[in-house]
From TrEMBL:
<dbReference type="InterPro" id="IPR053781">
    <property type="entry name" value="F-box_AtFBL13-like"/>
</dbReference>
<feature type="compositionally biased region" description="Basic and acidic residues">
    <location>
        <begin position="8"/>
        <end position="21"/>
    </location>
</feature>
<dbReference type="InterPro" id="IPR055357">
    <property type="entry name" value="LRR_At1g61320_AtMIF1"/>
</dbReference>
<dbReference type="Pfam" id="PF23622">
    <property type="entry name" value="LRR_At1g61320_AtMIF1"/>
</dbReference>
<feature type="region of interest" description="Disordered">
    <location>
        <begin position="1"/>
        <end position="21"/>
    </location>
</feature>
<feature type="domain" description="F-box">
    <location>
        <begin position="21"/>
        <end position="57"/>
    </location>
</feature>
<protein>
    <recommendedName>
        <fullName>F-box domain-containing protein</fullName>
    </recommendedName>
</protein>
<dbReference type="InterPro" id="IPR001810">
    <property type="entry name" value="F-box_dom"/>
</dbReference>
<dbReference type="Pfam" id="PF00646">
    <property type="entry name" value="F-box"/>
</dbReference>
<dbReference type="InterPro" id="IPR036047">
    <property type="entry name" value="F-box-like_dom_sf"/>
</dbReference>
<dbReference type="InterPro" id="IPR053772">
    <property type="entry name" value="At1g61320/At1g61330-like"/>
</dbReference>
<dbReference type="InterPro" id="IPR032675">
    <property type="entry name" value="LRR_dom_sf"/>
</dbReference>
């Protein structure tokens, strides 16, 4: 155990029968709490038992992280049963709920015990991950008060583990984190709560990171943000209550803005130094002022025309150096061609990652949707690195779709593209045609990597199919790569190849 390891240090570096040359007690008093704080809280408490003089060391632990039961009201789904079976299931459900309640009570008791005995000195992080019912919310208010009074720098309250149809969301009091006109919080993460921000909340002058996930936002969010002038990272994930998101100009230090599946109608940012912008959701008007410093962007528009819209409807990303595009594409949604003028070109783009889900009504060998990517390469003449992930998905349309005929890829000569990686490559006709276009026109291409496996980044169940993919597609991909390498005189590596 950790306690025995620490204790054994007292007996090192000495000969048989000699007194130990080094003892933990000989260290300066201010060093011991630092050593103990490097252990998890539970281990720190156990280690404090080793010596009576260490008894209170754990009360100076700087990271207090508490993780409660995963779910409450966990009602298992069961099919219709006979009356006697229903009684047995009811008893099982009651027993399960009782066990969960006992775990919850024990968790609450442990948290209250720690914060009651803690010195409240040098707190770096205070984190709570649990689910509570309405009648237990008063514990949260006590924990929030502790985080504020102990001057914690990192505060996390994740309450999304609860799973109950009748649950009530806790109204998180932002004002409670402000003590005597100021807050020491530098990073704040809130999940599955509601907040009522307004311009009258001052004191968050040190807040550099704010992450809200599944949060109900009421009142004036932009007015609250205007008082957080030190904010560098703002992430909003599936939050509700905001229709038009406006980032005020006071956030002149904001570097990263993430908007993920928000039900907003418009996004406008006046943050002058924004360097990294991420948007995932439906196509909406996006206006970023001060975009000259934007270097990295991630765009994922919903719908089968997402790739086209990312390259034609978001002029704000024309100056980025790194672009990550995630989209669904189909053969009957053609990419809108950009005018071949410098004002419509991605003249600064050097690295692009593209995750494509190909929606197909027929067999993948006859689907030409991926050829749309040629148009994207044509408007990025200085691109150096391309990372392409592909996966095919089949669906049945209610009415036959009219598939547009693709003229065939017309890729311009490319003088800067050096490295290309393609995952989900199965030698489908359009995939092979795309790869040949790149090999033929990328004049300085050093290396192309092909990977039959579907990247986990675009397919959560990729690992379940990868074993079969290796056996089925790998031989054909290796043979194609060898022939293409000889034809174009370029190095092609096939990943996932079994060791010889």
């Amino acid at each position: 155990s950790s306690a025995s390891k620490v204790s054994s240090l007292e007996h090192c570096h000495h000969g048989a029968g000699d007194e130990p040359s080094f003892r933990m007690e000989d260290l300066p008093a201010e060093i011991l709490p630092v050593i103990i704080s490097l252990l998890p809280l539970k281990e720190a408490v156990r280690t404090s038992i080793v010596s009576t003089s260490w008894k209170m060391l754990w009360t100076f632990h700087c990271n207090l992280c508490f993780y409660g039961p995963n779910e409450l009201d966990d009602d298992p789904s069961v099919p219709p049963l006979e009356s006697d079976e229903e009684a047995a299931v009811d008893e099982y459900v009651k027993t399960s709920q009782a066990k969960l309640k006992m775990k919850q009570d024990k968790f609450i008791e442990a948290v209250n015990c720690v914060i009651q005995r803690h010195s409240r000195v040098g707190i770096n992080k205070f984190s709570i991950r649990c689910g509570l019912h309405k009648e237990e919310f008063y514990h949260l208010d006590r924990w929030i008060g502790f985080a504020a009074s102990s001057k914690a720098k990192i505060v996390d309250f994740d309450l999304k583990k609860i799973d109950s149809p009748s649950r009530e969301v806790h109204q998180f009091p932002l004002e409670a984190l402000v003590v005597q006109g100021s807050s020491c919080v530098q990073s704040l993460y809130l999940a599955d709560v509601s907040i009522k921000p307004h311009p009258g909340i001052f004191g968050f002058t040190l807040l550099r990171r704010l992450v809200l996930e599944f949060v109900e936002i009421f009142r004036d969010f932009s007015g609250f943000l205007a008082n957080c002038s030190a904010l560098e990272d703002l992430e909003l994930i599936e939050c509700s209550g905001v229709t038009n998101l406006s980032i005020p100009h006071q956030l002149d230090k904001l570097q990263h803005l993430l908007i993920d599946r928000m039900a907003v109608e418009t996004v406008e940012s006046n943050a002058a130094d924004l360097a990294h912008f991420e948007y995932k959701g439906k196509e909406i008007p996006i206006v970023l002022h001060g975009r000259s410093k934007l270097e990295m962007a991630t765009i994922m528009f919903e719908g089968s025309n997402g790739l086209a819209r990312a390259f034609t409807a978001v002029p704000i990303i024309l100056r980025v150096k790194v672009l990550n595009v995630q989209a669904q594409i189909s053969a009957y949604e053609q990419l809108q061609k950009l005018a071949p003028r410098p004002c419509g070109m991605f003249m600064h783009l050097r690295h692009m990652t593209c995750g494509l889900t190909v929606l197909s009504l027929k067999k993948p060998n006859s689907d030409n949707g991926v050829l749309q990517l040629v148009h994207c390469l044509n408007v990025a003449p200085l691109l150096q690195t391309l990372h392409l992930d592909m996966i095919y998905s089949y669906f049945k349309a209610s009415a036959p779709a009219e598939v547009a005929e693709e003229e065939g890829p017309h890729m311009h000569h490319h003088g800067h593209l050096k490295t290309v990686h393609i995952s989900g490559f199965r030698c489908y006709k359009a995939q092979a045609e795309l790869a040949c276009c790149i090999l033929e026109n990328a004049r300085v291409l050093d290396h192309m990597e092909l990977q039959p496996r579907v990247a986990a980044a675009i397919c959560s169940y990729a690992d379940l199919k990868n074993f079969a993919v290796e056996r089925r597609f790998l031989p054909g991909v290796r043979e194609w790569a060898q022939l293409a390498s000889e034809r174009f005189g370029k190095a092609i590596t096939v990943l996932d190849a079994p060791s010889e």
